[in-house]
Amino acid sequence: MTDGIVERSRPRDRILETARDMFHKHGIKGVGVDAITEAAGTNKMTLYRHFESKDELIVECLRANAAKAGAMWDAFEAEFPGDKLAQLHAWVRKAAAMLNADGRGCDMANAAAELTEPDHPARLVIKELKEAQRARLVTLCRDAGIGQAELLADTLSLLLEGARVSVQTVGTEGPSTQFVRMAEGLIVSFRGTAAV
Amino acid sequence: MTDGIVERSRPRDRILETARDMFHKHGIKGVGVDAITEAAGTNKMTLYRHFESKDELIVECLRANAAKAGAMWDAFEAEFPGDKLAQLHAWVRKAAAMLNADGRGCDMANAAAELTEPDHPARLVIKELKEAQRARLVTLCRDAGIGQAELLADTLSLLLEGARVSVQTVGTEGPSTQFVRMAEGLIVSFRGTAAV
DNA sequence: CTAGGGTGTTACCGGTCTGTAACTTCCAGC
DNA sequence: GCTGGAAGTTACAGACCGGTAACACCCTAG
């Protein structure tokens, strides 16, 4: 019961959702458009009526991923309104939970690993989306009253990014098990050096 | 002027070296055996006389990469004999230098991102080699007299791994610029909590 | 009821992929 | 100089790839 998601909805949405799922599981070059449309319960022609090429479908999937991640951030704000520090800790816990959820790393990072052509349209949106996420984390750290918000945000980013590839290479029992401990420790130690 | 390396040597070595280079630059699924053999100045039949399949060639390339990385560690020992702390700092500097050298991340991590079949032969050796590298870093930290050597080693691992994917997604001007600062800071702070 | 747009179906194009067969050529060691 | 093995050459098999053409269908809005 994998790769299903053929609920009745408009073909475009089904294709997008199925492609996201299959790209995530099998990689981008590991999935052909035929396989996507079949799993989405439709056909190739319909795909090409809604997306001008596989590359555009890839880009649209990445954007959809980022939108979903953005919604997660909004959920933190809803859960701890105004309490930025609590939101930061929620982010750490959520990230750690997703680490162990599936052994595949970040879709954007994986896409960047696969799509090596320097002018591939996906590379631009990956950079754009990653930078937006970084900006959001920096803002959260700063609003949580942390001095050197950029440094903390970048450190947390690298740790999480590293934990994701670690899970992908050595599994969930490797260095990534320490992620929460590292992240929490960092936040505490940065809290010490409060706003200047 | 790329992908050359057609010096006169035995075809097997040329194929291996060329494949390493091309896999690194263009990804594994982004390079066909025809392209490899042509760039290596030989032909497909010769490749298949030395490697039973592309998958075996991939595995052999990964092992060669790991051997090269191992040689780097030996160089640190040769440069700072017995001074494990100096070797650790040398490792940080070397890692940072390689970060900015080329925008492609770790070959093993990239391979893990591309080769999603859970029983792909490469996945096994990736895990094996990554675990060996981790063990070596833990040993280095411990021999440098650092308490919680595993935690420091794992943190440094995740930071470096994350920095490599960061370079690949947002470029060298992103969070990875802070890698040395983070790593050196960590080493110092772990030195504080000396061996228990 | 009808018109029309979204959808499904089938077949196809040209290209690329891994891997193999059959044969020729080269070259080093005897 | 001869021979045997390594290497090169050409052609091909069979599968898959992204993308398109032509046409039949269905279902809803008018």
**H/E element sequence of chain A:** HHHHHHHHH
Reading off the top of the CATH hierarchy, the class of the largest domain in chain A is best stated as Mainly Alpha
Quickly give the structural class of chain A: mainly alpha
Question: How is the biggest beta sheet of chain A arranged?
Answer: none
**Shape, principal axes of CA atoms of chain A:** elongated
Mean pLDDT of chain A, as a whole number?
94
CATH fold type of the largest domain in chain A: Tetracycline Repressor, domain 2
By CATH, the superfamily of the largest domain in chain A comes out as: Tetracycline Repressor, domain 2
Q: What pair of chains forms the biggest interface? A: A-B, 46 and 47 residues
The number of distinct structural domains of chain A comes to: 2
Oligomer: homodimer
Strand content of chain A: under 5%
* Unreliable residue runs of chain A: 1-6
Distance between the termini of chain A: 54 Å
Number of strands of chain A: 0
**Roughly how many Å is the radius of gyration of chain A?**
19 Å
Helix content of chain A: over 70%
Q: Please, how many helices of chain A?
A: 9
CATH architecture of the largest domain in chain A: Orthogonal Bundle
